[in-house]
Amino acid sequence: MERLHFQGAAGAIDDYVQYRRIVGEDDGGKMFTPEEYEAYKKTVLPTRAQNRLFVSWRSPTGIDCKLVGPETPCFCTHRYKQHKTDFKELPKDRPILLPCKVSKCPCKSYHYAPLNGSQPIRCRCKHFADDHSVTGSYNCTKCKSDSLHRVTMITTICSNCSGFHSSFTCGCSQPAYAHDTVVETKEERQALGKPVGHDVPYAAMGGLTGFSSLAEGYMRLDESGIGAPSKSFLETPDDGGSHPFLRAYGPPSSNVKELPEGNNQASSLKTSEEQDMAYFERRYQERLQKEREQKRLSKDPKHPRNQRP
Questions:
Q1: Is beta strand 53-58 parallel, antiparallel or unpaired with respect to 115-116?
Q2: 27-85 pLDDT per residue, tens
Q3: pTM of the full structure
Q4: How far is 196 from 111, CA to CA, in rounded Å?
Q5: Alpha helix positions (H), the chain
Q6: Whole-angstrom Cα distance, residue 201 to residue 46?
Q7: C-alpha dihedral (247, 253, 259, 261), degrees to nearest 10
């Protein structure tokens, strides 16, 4: 998919968006000069492409139910882009910790906080995620600010809250507490057969590899996240190992014919869907013709049906 580029003032906006996507929060709120920007790109971009970390919220069945992007909020309420995401050398310890860079935030590593649509979910102690500690076991802190005499019942429940534990059920049919926030390298992700997409220069991309990455795991038809497959892939005869989606909706391999040398256009053979549409169109035209014929005959005075006894 191509991006639109504009000239003049609109072009400056386009350049700023590009700058913000690459630099993220690394300029401390003060834009780099053109020289600093070029030096930043020469230093950071090669390392970013080599040491990119993929972040996802994974169910026990192995589905990446949520692929974390720059704007995805953490348990500490700050965005993923506000956490440490660039490393000159990848940490050897596991799990990989991504501490929050916001001043005075105690968050030691990014931890995805799921939402129910656009609404936050509650813990079994009836309080929201931001009422819990962002360190340790994420225990509830709401009772510390409540009056013991005014909210006795809630205080009692929170005193027994050993950590954020929600019974909210994800679209994959697994409860939220059964999911884990996973931070992994490109090699680790490829070893699991997970998509990694193309190398991009943007900061804090997390697990995003394409538009389909924005959908929930059980709705994500294009697992690669890198868009449509290449023409050569689509024209490869089906040997039984192609993607189930292509086998279900693609043309049968017996209909694939070799194109003349130098012909860059795809085969003009009709798919089963096109044949169905042609059939219904033919039936429709036949019905219209029959209706016109009946209308013509009804106006013909010589027709036997129009003659009075």
A1: unpaired
A2: 888 889 999 999 999 999 999 989 999 999 999 888 899 999 999 999 999 999 999 99
A3: 0.65
A4: 21
A5: 8-23, 34-50, 152-159, 186-191, 231-234, 244-249, 272-299
A6: 8
A7: 90
